[in-house]
Write a structure and sequence with these properties.
By secondary structure, this protein is of the alpha/beta class. Helix content is 46%, strand content 18%. The chain folds into 3 domains: 2-78, no CATH class; 90-324, Endonuclease, Chain A, CATH 3.30.870.10; 335-499, 2-Layer Sandwich (Endonuclease, Chain A). The strands form 4 sheets. An 8-stranded mixed β-sheet has the order 9-18-16-15-10-12-13-19, with helices on both faces. A 7-stranded mixed β-sheet has the order 1-8-6-5-2-3-4, with helices on both faces. A two-stranded parallel sheet has the order 7-14. α6 (118-131) packs antiparallel against α12 (335-346) and α8 (176-190) runs parallel beside α9.
Length: 500
C-alpha cells in the first residue's frame, strides 16, 4: 500500500508539473495542477519534519524536495529516507531487542571488572546501555594485519570446519581471491558441513551468478542482503550491510575491515598496497558476534537459528574486557556515533584515530577540537589517496579546522589505508567495520569490537606507530597555501557529506 501511494504521488507530481509548464492548458487547469503539486510536496515535507531528525538533515531534504521539481521527491523516495525509522527494519529491530534481552539474561559478572579504570567502566556501561551488549572477560582476540595474514588463516580455519561455516561480506568478488574461498566453501558443503553465506546486494555486484549457482548446487545456502529488485520503488539502495563476519563451528570468528577481493591482498594495480586490519575472536564475545550474523540471516532467509548448537561457546581468558556492538538501521539510530563521541570526550591523554573516510558529525568534530585544546594528544590518520574523488576531498575539507585547534593529521603514503580503529589513552580501543563518517553512523549495518586492556590493544598501538613511519604529517602553514582548485574540490565534495 505504501509503495502504491508513493507511485501514485510520483505520477501525480509528473503530470501536474507537465500541466504547469504547458502553454495549452487554461488557467483553471493549471491552478488545480499547482494545488495538487504543492499539496503533495508540502505533505511530504510535513511528515519529514515530524520525524524529528537533525535540523541539518531535515532542511537538506526539504530543500531538495522543494527546489528540484519532481526529481527531488523521487530521489528522496528512492534513497529510502522514509524507511530509516519506518517499516522496512521494524521486525529486525524487534528481533535485535529480543536477543539483547537474552544477552542480559546470560551475563555473568566477573571480578575482573575492577581491573578497569573508572572511566573505562563508565564507558563499558554506556555501551551496554545503548546496545544491550555486555562486556566479557572470558574472550580472546588476535589482530591480523593485512590480507596476507587474514586470508591464509581464514582458509585454514574453513578447511578445519566440521559442523558449520557462517560467512557475511559487504564486498565479495569473483576474482582469484574470491574463488579460492568459494571453492573451499563448496568443498566443505559437499563434506556435509552446513555453510551459510550472506553478501550485500550492491557491494557484491561483482560476485558472478555462476559462482552463486555453483555454491547453491553444492549445498551452500546463499542469500543477498537487500538486492536490487524489479520496480523503481522497491529499491533500498541507500541501506548497505557493511559487516564482515565469519563464524566457524562456534570456536572462532573473524571481523574487521577486510572484504574479499584481490585488492585486499595488494594485488590490484589501481589500489596497490592495501593496509587493513582484521580481528580473530574466541570465547564468550564470539556468541555476541554470531548473534549479529544470525539476526541478519533470519532477516534474509526468515530462519531463526538461536539454539545452543550455534550459540554455545568455550570461555577463553585474555585478561581484559571485550564488547561486540552492532549498529545500523536495525538498532537505535546513531549508536556508533555516540560511542565514538564518548571515547573522545572521555580521553585523558590520547585519542588516535585511523579511518579511510573522515566525514564526521558536528558533535564528533567539536569533541576532537575540545580534546586537542585541552592538551590531549589527538591524532588522525587517513590515506593520502582515497578510492574516490568525493571521499578524498570531503575528508580534506575538515583539515583546516582540525589543524587550527591542534589536531595532528597524518597522510598514509605507502598505499591505501582502510583500517578503522580508535585507541584511547593507550588502554582501550575499537576495531571493526564502521568508518568515522555519516554513512557508517546512520545508514550502513556495521559491527565493531571494543577492547579494554587486552594484548590486542597493545598490538594496535604498536602498528599505529609503525604506520606513522609511512605517513607524512600535514603542516598547517603548507596546507593554508593549497590552491584554489583544491579548495573548490573540497567545498564541492563536502556538499555530499550526508550521503558519503
Amino acid at each position: 500500500m505504501k509503495r502504491t501511494r508513493q507511485f501514485l504521488f510520483s505520477i501525480s507530481l509528473i503530470i501536474s508539473f507537465v500541466i504547469i509548464l504547458s502553454t495549452k492548458q487554461n488557467l483553471e487547469v493549471k491552478a488545480i495542477a499547482v494545488a495538487v503539486y504543492l499539496s503533495i510536496i508540502l505533505s511530504v515535507c510535513y511528515v519529514l519534519m515530524l520525524e524529528n531528525r537533525s535540523p541539518y538533515k531535515t532542511l537538506l531534504w526539504i530543500y531538495v524536495i522543494l527546489f528540484i521539481p519532481v526529481i527531488g521527491y523521487i530521489t528522496f523516495i528512492y534513497s529510502g529516507q522514509l524507511e530509516v525509522k519506518g517499516h522496512l527494519f521494524k521486525q529486525k529491530r524487534q528481533s535485535n531487542f529480543e536477543q539483547s534481552l537474552e544477552v542480559q539474561h546470560e551475563y555473568k559478572p566477573s571480578h575482573k571488572w575492577t581491573h578497569l579504570s573508572e572511566s573505562e567502566r563508565d564507558f563499558s556501561k554506556l555501551i551496554t546501555s545503548l546496545s544491550g551488549q555486555n562486556i566479557s572477560f572470558y574472550s580472546n582476540t588476535e589482530v591480523l594485519r593485512n590480507g596476507d595474514m587474514k586470508f591464509p588463516r581464514l582458509l585454514e580455519e574453513i578447511n578445519r570446519a566440521t559442523d558449520f561455516i557462517h560467512m557475511q561480506y559487504y564486498i565479495f568478488r569473483s576474482d582469484e581471491t574470491g574463488r579460492e574461498l568459494i571453492n573451499a566453501l563448496i568443498s566443505k558443503a559437499r563434506e556435509g558441513v552446513e555453510v551459510r553465506f550472506i553478501f550485500d546486494g550492491i557491494g557484491s555486484l561483482s560476485l558472478e551468478d555462476q559462482d552463486i549457482s555453483a555454491m547453491k548446487e553444492a549445498g551452500v545456502e546463499v542469500h543477498s542482503f537487500l538486492p536490487i529488485q524489479k520496480g523503481f520503488f522497491n529499491q533500498k539502495f541507500n541501506f548497505r550491510n557493511h559487516r564482515k563476519i565469519v563464524v566457524i563451528d562456534g570456536n572462532i570468528g573473524f571481523v574487521g575491515g577486510l572484504n574479499v577481493g584481490k585488492e585486499y591482498l595488494g594485488k590490484d594495480e589501481k589500489f596497490g598496497y592495501w593496509r587493513d586490519t582484521h580481528l580473530i575472536l574466541r570465547g564468550e564475545a564470539l556468541r555476541d558476534l554470531h548473534r549479529v550474523f544470525l539476526l541478519d540471516w533470519s532477516y534474509v532467509h526468515d530462519e531463526e537459528l538461536f539454539t545452543d548448537r550455534y550459540l554455545d561457546v568455550q570461555p577463553h581468558d585474555e585478561g581484559g574486557g571485550i564488547q561486540v556492538v552492532p549498529s545500523g538501521p536495525d538498532t537505535s539510530q546513531g549508536i556508533m556515533s555516540y560511542l565514538y563521541f564518548s571515547m573522545i570526550t572521555n580521553a585523558k591523554k590520547s585519542v588516535w584515530i585511523t579511518t579511510p573516510y573522515f566525514i564526521p558529525s558536528k558533535e564528533i568534530r567539536t569533541a576532537l577540537l575540545i580534546a586537542a585544546v585541552k592538551g590531549i594528544d589527538v591524532r588522525l590518520m587517513v590515506p593520502e589517496k582515497s578510492d574516490g574523488f568525493l571521499t578524498e576531498y570531503a575528508t580534506r575539507s575538515y583539515f583546516s579546522e582540525l589543524l587550527k585547534y591542534g589536531v595532528k593529521i597524518y597522510l598514509y603514503r605507502k598505499g591505501f589505508h582502510h583500517q578503522k580503529t580508535i585507541i584511547v589513552d593507550g588502554s582501550y580501543a575499537t576495531l571493526g567495520t564502521a568508518n568515522v563518517d555519516l554513512r557508517s553512523f546512520h545508514l550502513n549495518f556495521e559491527v565493531n569490537v571494543f577492547m579494554f586492556r587486552t594484548p590486542s590493544v597493545d598490538t594496535l598501538i604498536s602498528q599505529y606507530e609503525e604506520d606513522l613511519n609511512n605517513s607524512v604529517e600535514v603542516d598547517i602553514n603548507t596546507y593554508k597555501d593549497r590552491g584554489l582548485l583544491i579548495r573548490t574540490n573540497e567545498s564541492f565534495a563536502r556538499l555530499f557529506s550526508p550521503v558519503l
